[in-house]
Design a protein that fits this description.
By secondary structure, the protein is of the alpha+beta class. It is built from six helices and 26 strands. β20 and β21 form a beta hairpin. α4 runs parallel beside α5. The N and C termini lie far apart (49 Å).
Length: 444
């Protein structure tokens, strides 16, 4: 194990890199996580909400989560069993003192014999940066609290993909709850409902303590698809429950979008929708990247589900077509870091492009190790490619602290260790301070 060098490495240090842990012995598997579950009350969570809460003669089912919805706005999403419950959010900067009210929209869906509750989406704002807000959904019930991200550096992202609903999932969430972060990024495979729609409900209950207090920004994975030919379309539950700011970023699909946090432009792409050069997603990505002002947002981070650089035996080659189509766009734009899931293990690359290390390419990080029920992908290729810097099959989560316009600190934390223990870490220099963007800007 390695101590957290973030406390002792000077900020001026350009790169601090820790190789694969030597002599690490993985402990035996933990028990499968079962429902019903009574989650602990985290410090930032003012009142615990029961799965089924009676307010007067109304039975209200809460699955509250929040997401960014354009500049200085937040989308509040929750589910109620009562079809007459209003899509209203009251909020303010003092507990039980709501100075503002916002109304929104609602939806629901049917999937075979399952009918969802009433799914509410309400956008609130404008909000102050780096500020705590208290809010209440539907005009009654319990109070929640969230904190808006800062407008300037530093800003910290928690990153964990392929979560599911197991004991490892709970361990991952407990670790994330201990770190100080502003936004959670999830590169696909959320609930592992896999057609059993009630598992979307229990997933909402499981993540609510964290997802109601910090924005969760997600993209879809293969377990969100849930397509049944001639019976059910793809992504029905995902699109209904996890509405992201695609309209705010001029996308025509909830499967791909972008947003800005402080000085970071984050792009969320879809591995399971068309991505070739004739597709809507490709055209949107090209237009989106062309509008990025690196003076305002010196960092570009990209997330999607299927990794492009993967030395694990699992899912080999599945991202090759998307990589062939879209990697040149990210390279030309000077993307700094790319996060993916799908492979149930951890791997970090050097800066890489077109299959070889390249100082003007992106750092690729596979982090599909959040806690899924399918277990870890433990078999790697015997000889790691030259671009692979660190790889390990353990459950964990990552933290990306963007310190300033030129330096970021990435750390990966193994679930078997205490959260402060860093299993892999590296300083990343933004391409904004390199010759890469200057050379590309000179090209006709």
């Amino acid at each position: 194990m390695h101590s957290n060098l973030l406390l002792v490495i000077p900020l001026l240090l350009l790169v601090s890199d820790v190789g694969a842990a030597a002599g690490y012995v993985r402990p035996p598997p933990r028990k499968t996580f079962h429902f019903p579950w009574t989650p602990p009350k985290p410090p930032s969570y003012p009142q615990q909400v029961d799965k089924l809460k009676t307010v007067g003669d109304l039975s209200v089912y809460f699955e509250v989560h929040i997401s960014l919805a354009g500049d200085k706005h937040m989308r509040i999403t929750w589910v109620t069993k009562n079809k007459h419950s209003p899509s209203v959010v009251e909020y303010g900067t003092s507990s039980n003192n709501y100075s503002s009210t916002a109304q929104g929209e609602h939806t629901s869906y049917r999937y075979l014999l399952y009918t969802s509750g009433k799914i509410h989406h309400v956008v609130i704002g404008p909000l102050e940066d780096d500020t705590s807000y208290f809010y209440r959904c539907g005009g009654e019930g319990s109070e929640f609290q969230f904190k808006t991200p800062p407008s300037q550096f530093p800003v910290t992202f928690a990153v964990a993909g392929d979560l599911g609903q197991t004991g490892w999932t709970k361990s991952t969430l407990d670790h994330i709850d201990l770190c100080k972060y502003d936004v959670h990024l999830l590169p696909g495979d959320l609930s592992y409902a896999d057609y059993l729609q009630q598992r979307w409900d229990t997933f909402g209950e499981l993540v609510q303590p964290l997802a109601s207090s910090r924005p969760w920004m997600v993209t879809q994975g293969n377990h969100e698809k849930e397509n049944l030919p001639f019976l059910e379309d793809s992504f029905v539950a995902y699109n209904s429950r996890w509405k992201m700011p695609y309209e705010e970023s001029l996308s025509d699909s909830n499967l791909y979008y972008s947003f800005d946090v402080a000085g970071v432009h984050v792009v969320m792409l879809g591995s399971y929708t068309d991505y070739d050069e004739y597709s809507d997603q490709y055209r949107w990505l090209k237009a989106d990247l062309s509008k990025v002002d690196r003076a305002m947002t010196p960092w570009i981070i990209v997330l999607f589900h299927v990794p492009w650089y993967n030395s694990n035996e699992a899912h080999q080659g599945e991202g090759d077509d998307m990589m062939s189509a879209m990697e040149p766009l990210l390279y030309d734009a000077g993307a700094d870091a790319v996060f993916a899931g799908h492979v149930h293990a951890y791997e970090r690359t050097n800066r890489v492009y077109n299959g070889i290390s390249d100082p003007c390419g992106a750092v690729h990080i596979t982090i599909g190790d959040g806690g899924n029920r399918e277990g870890l992908a433990q078999k790697y290729k015997e000889s790691p490619p030259e671009w692979s810097a660190f790889r390990e099959a353990s459950f964990g989560h990552g933290e990306l602290k963007i310190v300033n316009s030129t330096h970021a600190f990435w750390s990966w934390h193994r679930n078997d260790d205490d959260e402060p223990v860093t299993s892999d870490q590296v300083w990343i220099n933004s391409l904004i301070g390199s010759s890469c963007l200057a050379e590309k800007n000179r090209e006709p």
